[in-house]
């Protein structure tokens, strides 16, 4: 595998569950330490990196309704959960010497900057890792869609989605043992086959703007770095 990156500017979508590891709630230090170490390695190669955080390790705005919350209210709580993850990622990255900027789609001046597109691009050009939190700032949109939107806005080369499976499969590989893995697949196939690898609104946005998507398994150490260096990892959607 060549040590020259395939991409100059990437957006990495990290779910809350990815940060949770084997814990039932919150953030696993071992996991966040391992993930940020790989991000630092990519950063040291000169790759411009933006991260979009989910919040499911604290609260899932789309599904947590045990207390009969209004859906919009639940989504806003989920956005706040992504900010908590963003703060944690920023702190651990900066402890490793990586300068970061936390950007929130909800105004929260004490801890994060607002989204200003040209300023974000300048941060990336200066070698700062940008962390996008609070989704799009509006309810009813997933963090997948937020990741696609931000990637398009900052003209990223690719959108990486870190998952707990090795890529896109014909069926759920946890249920169907002989499910076929796709090394490459088209945007329309994801939608037409109703493959639930990421939100279809996000896929449509990427299709309309010709933005590549790569799905890979983050639970295997080294896969973030490998995904930047080679397209042999995971599944490429284009």
Describe this structure in words.
It is a single chain. The protein is of the alpha/beta class and 238 residues long. It has a single domain (9-237), classed as Carbamate kinase (3-Layer(aba) Sandwich), CATH 3.40.1160.10. 37% of the residues lie in helices and 19% in strands. It has eight helices and eleven strands. The strands form two sheets. It has a nine-stranded mixed β-sheet, sandwiched between helices. The protein is globular and about 50 Å long.
Short description, anyone?
With 238 residues, this protein is an alpha/beta fold. It contains eight helices and eleven strands.
Major sheet description: 9 strands, mixed
Q: Helix segment count?
A: 8
**SSE pattern, N- to C-terminal:** EHHEHEEHEHEEEEHHEHE
Give the class-level CATH name. Alpha Beta
Tally the beta strands: 11
Tell me which CATH architecture applies here: 3-Layer(aba) Sandwich
* CA-based gyration radius: 17 Å
Any idea of the CATH topology?
Carbamate kinase
In one word, what is the shape? globular
Q: Strands of the biggest beta sheet: in what spatial order?
A: 4-3-5-2-1-6-10-11-9
How far apart lie the N and C ends? 22 Å
- Structural class given helices, strands, pairing? alpha/beta
Q: How much is the average pLDDT?
A: 94
- Number of domains as seen in the coordinates: 1
């Amino acid at each position: 595998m060549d040590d020259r990156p395939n991409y100059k500017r990437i957006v990495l979508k990290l779910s809350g569950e990815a940060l949770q590891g084997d814990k039932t709630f919150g953030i696993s230090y071992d996991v966040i330490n391992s993930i940020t170490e790989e991000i630092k390695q990519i950063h040291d190669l000169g790759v411009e990196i933006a991260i979009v955080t989910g919040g499911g390790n604290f609260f899932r705005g789309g599904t947590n309704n045990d207390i009969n919350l209004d859906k919009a209210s639940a989504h806003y709580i989920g956005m706040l959960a992504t900010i908590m993850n963003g703060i944690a990622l920023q702190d651990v990255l900066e402890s490793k010497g990586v300068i970061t900027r936390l950007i929130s789609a909800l105004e929260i001046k004490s801890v994060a900057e607002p989204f200003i597109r040209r300023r974000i691009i300048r941060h990336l050009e200066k070698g700062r890792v940008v962390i996008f939190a609070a989704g799009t700032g509006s309810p009813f949109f997933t963090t997948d869609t937020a990741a696609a939107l931000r990637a398009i806005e900052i003209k990223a080369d690719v959108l990486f989605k870190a998952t707990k499976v090795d890529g896109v499969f014909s069926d759920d590989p946890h249920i169907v043992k002989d499910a076929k893995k796709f090394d490459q697949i088209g945007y329309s196939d994801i939608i037409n086959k109703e493959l639930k690898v990421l939100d279809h609104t996000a896929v449509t946005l990427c299709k309309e703007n010709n933005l590549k998507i790569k799905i890979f398994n983050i639970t295997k150490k080294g896969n973030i770095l490998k995904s930047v260096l080679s397209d042999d990892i995971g599944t490429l959607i284009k």
